Amino acid sequence: MTFSPDLWSTVGLTLRLAFVTTGVLLILGLPLAHWLNTSRWRGVAILETLVTLPIVLPPTVIGFYLLVTFSPNHWPGQLWQSLTGHSLAFSFAGLVVGSVIYSLPFAVQPFQSALKGVPESLVEAARVSGASGWQIFRHIAFPLARRGILTGVILSFAHTVGEFGVVLMLGGNIPGVTRVASISLYDEMQKLNYPAAHGYALVLLAIAFVTILILAGLQRRADGR
Amino acid sequence: MNFPLQAEKPQTLLVCAASDLTYCLEELNAAFQKAHPEITVKATLGASGNLLAQIQNGAPYDVFLSADIQYPKALIDAKAAEADSLTPYATGHLVVWTTTPGIDVKGGAGSLTADAIQKIAIANPEHAPYGRAAKAALEHLGLWEKLREKIVLGENIAQTAQFVETGNAQAGIVALSLVLSPKLANRGSYAAIPLDSYPALEQGAVITKKGGANPAAKTYLEFLKSPEARAIFDRYGFLLPEGGRAASQSKIETRESEIR
What is the CATH number of the domain that holds A83? Predict the structure, then answer.
C-alpha cells in the first residue's frame, strides 16, 4: 500500500470540495427546508420531490444534464461563461454545482425534520414578544434543531466525499482542480497500480467510517443512551 | 415445417473493444451477424487499459480489440490470452478536432495555442492509448508545456470526443475513426496530426483464455480479416498496418479535403 504526495493533495481537494459544498448546502438548505415546511403553495409537493430526487437518480443523469445544459453552445452555459469567465465543466466551481445538487436531499431532509421538531408554541411566543425572524432562528429554532442540522451537514459532507459519477462526467480529471480521490482510485486501478489504489481506498474508507461514527455518536447522545 | 433433429446450440460471443471503435464496431458486428446469424455478439466499449485490467481480473470477454497492441501482447505473456490468435487489424490516427464556431484548427496541433481555445480534451494518457499518443505528439511538437494548463482528460477516447462535440472543450485530439463516423462526420472541422510525431497506434485483437473455449471467437477474428470487414475499417480511416506510413498519411489528407 502506498500513500504518495499525490494522494494527500487529491484527498485535500476532495475535502475542500466537500467543505465548500456543505457550506453552500447549509446556506441554501436551511431557508429551503423552512420554506418547504411552512409553505401553503400547492406546487410545494413537486418542489419537495425535486429536492429528494438525487437520492434515487443515477449520478450520470445529473452529469449528463449539467454537461449538456451548461455547454457553451446553450444559453445557460453562455450565461455561466460570461459570469465566471470559464465553462462550468472542468472547473472546481462546476463540481460544486454538481455536488450541491447531488447532496441536496442529504442536507435538506434532516434540516426539515429538525426544524419540524421546534415547538410552534415557542416560536409563537417569541413572535408576540416582538422577536424578528432572524432572532427566532438564532435563539430558538437553531439551538433546538442543531442536532438535526448537524446530521444534515455530516451526511452531505460524507456523500460529497463519496461522489464519483458526476465528477467523472463533468470534471475532465484535472490534477488539483477536478481530480478527486474517488477518480484517482479508479485511475490507479486501471493502471493496475494496486498499491496506490489500496492507499486511496483505505483513506476514503477511513473518512467515511469516521464521519458515520460521529453521526452515530450524536444519535446515541440525542437518544440519551 | 422442418424441425432439425438436433437444434443448433445458440452461441454467444462477448467482444470488448477500444472506444475508438465506438461507431465502427456497430457496423462490423451488424455485418458479422448477417454472415453468422447463429452467433449472438455482445459488445462492450471502454479505454483499452481499463479493459485489460478487467480481463486480468476475470472479465468474461471472449475477444479483445485493443487500441494498443501491447495490451493483447501483455495478456498473452500472462497466459490470459491465446498466443496464436494475435491479429493486428488497423493503425489508428490522431486528429485535432473542433465543433466550436469560429475556432480554426486547420493548422493542426499548432493552432491549439490560440487564446479562444480555453480547454483542449485528450484521452487520459495513463490508460488510453490515444491519450498517450496525443501527449507524445504534443511533446514531440514542443507544445505540451505550453498547452498543459488547458488540457482536460476524457476517461476514454469516446468521452474525449463527447467533450469536444458538446463544445465544453473548444478543441480536442481524438481518433480519426470517430470524426469519420456517420454520427460525427460534417460536425466541425479537423486536421491530421503528422504520423511521425507519435508512436504508431498499432491496434490488435486477441482471443482471451476464456474465448479459447468458444469457437465463435475464432470465427469472429477470421471475419475481421475478411474483405468485407476491411472495407468497413477503411471507411472509418483505419488502415491496415502493412499499408505503410506514407500511403496512410496521403489517404488521411485526401479525406480531409473531401470533407472541406
Answer: 1.10.3720.10
